[in-house]
Amino acid sequence: MAKNTDKDLLKDNGFLSQRQDDYFSMRLHAAGGNVTSDYLRAVADAADRYGKGYVHITSRQGIEIPFVHLDNAGDASEQMMSAGIGPGASGKKIRAVVACQGDRVCKRGLIDCQGICEKIDEIYFAKPVPYKFKIAVTGCPASCLKVQENDFGIMGFLEPLFIEENCVMCRQCEKACGMSAITIENGSLYLDMNKCVSCGLCIAACRKDAMQIKEQGFTVFVGGKVGKKPRMGQKLLKTDDEEVVFDVLEKTIAYYRQNALEGERLGDVIDRCGIDQFRETIKYLR
Asked: Fewest C-beta atoms under 10 Å: which of 59, 115, 201, 212?
């Protein structure tokens, strides 16, 4: 990339203007917070050569190299590309997916967050949208990746089924539940599904198969955002079918592209047009 003072072009190639004249933070593509040791070595080398010897880890699990001078932007970009590292997304694009380690690593993970993240990233990363579109994947209702604060959020769930004849009233499930959804009184166990968040901890705690899996899958949230006017995402559906999740994601992005006004996020469109209209438009697989 030759020297170019067109900041829009630079931004499109991952260079974000700093407050210092002619200096930029070089944003790099990373998905789900997982990067290889080779990636880190290449970034460290570029930070030493073109920056000030350090990197910034962003709030969305990304990496930026600050203090890259305009004169070095082309060389820095070419070095990253030669290492197989492309630019990060900014502006009116679908941003990099954020994800926890899910069931590959976390003992509480209920879904393969990294696998889902990789699929989404391959299909949608940096694709154009009316303003910006953020996606998060989290392994369980603890929501470490704050899926309710994203335009599209995917959360793992595990709904319990109580088998009374197997229960020995050991209270392990009651102790494991942090939502007071399980109570034992007068020799009887009560499971309140209005309080249950489907985290599956009661099932993991039970040693007598009294708590079993009724349903396991994905909860989808839409319309979340932070910023000056934060909005919590709305629970759209629960499904045990990953194909449904990707069908809903594709139709949600299409809906956003077709209906958004200038500067609107998905949640703004839903507020203006109504959640019922949104549900009717996407008509997800069942």
From this structure: 59
Give the three-class secondary structure for 246.
helix
3-state secondary structure of 142: coil
Please give the DSSP secondary-structure letter assigned to residue 70: G
**Which strands sit side by side in the sheet containing 56-57, from one edge to the other?**
15-17, 23-28, 63-69, 56-57
Query: Are 140 and 102 in contact, with CB atoms under 8 Å apart?
Result: no
Nearest to 131 by CA among 261, 273, 275: 261
Domain that holds residue 102: 98-158+216-282
Q: Are 68 and 26 in contact (CB under 8 A)?
A: yes
Q: What is the pLDDT along the chain (286 residues), one digit of tens a residue?
A: 444 457 778 988 999 999 999 999 999 999 999 999 999 999 999 999 999 999 999 999 999 999 999 999 999 999 999 999 999 999 999 999 999 999 999 999 999 999 999 999 999 999 999 999 999 999 999 999 999 999 999 999 999 999 999 999 999 999 999 999 999 999 999 999 999 999 999 999 999 999 999 999 999 999 999 999 999 999 999 999 999 999 999 999 999 999 999 999 999 999 999 999 999 999 876 5
Whether 266 contacts 133, CB under 8 Å: yes
Asked whether 173 and 196 are in contact (CB, 8 A), the reply is no
Under DSSP, is residue 214 helix (H, G, I), strand (E, B) or coil? Answer: strand
Shared-domain flag, residues 204 and 229: no
Burial class (CB in 10 A: 0-12, 13-18, 19+), 2: exposed
Per-residue burial over 39-75, b if 16 or more Cβ lie within 10 Å, else e, is beebbeebbeebbeeebeebebbbbbbbbbebebbee
The answer to whether residues 133 and 242 belong to one domain is yes
